[in-house]
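Issue: ligand-bound run for fe (ii) ion - logging full I/O for the record.

Environment: standard queue, default settings, no custom constraints.

Inputs:
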Amino acid sequence: MVNHLIANQNVLFVKLHQFHWYLKGPEFFPLHEKFNELYDEANEYYDAFGERLIAIGEKPYSTLGEYLEHAFISETPYIEPLSSQDMLGILVDDYRVIRDVTVKAIHLAAKEKDDVTVDMLTGYKASLDKNIWMLQAYLGNDALEGEDEE
Ligand SMILES: [Fe+2]
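Outputs:
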């Protein structure tokens, strides 16, 4: 599951750059900056998760092919223009998918009594919850609005 998170973080990292570059309109300055902050954050967790897997004798995925194969979120070439609202909506959905994987990973790590991984994943989940809330707030929504039944 941590390896799936690594794959997802990479797809997210690339997508956040796509939005950072292609964004247009009156919200350009705050969102260009925000997307930068979010891909820096994704990159930090990606590295921490890979290093954690190595430290416990596992093998993190380390190629773009593996990332695309094992991510649960998807990417799209930038052909049709997206509004900032579209971009934020896509990110809320992606962060929710990643959060669900994170919750599963926390339960599995707890079952294995791997406290360090539980701790790392719990910190990550807090950051995902916060990102979802903030993106939703920017869209004028409550944090949990539009969430699918789980
Ligand atoms: Fe940039």
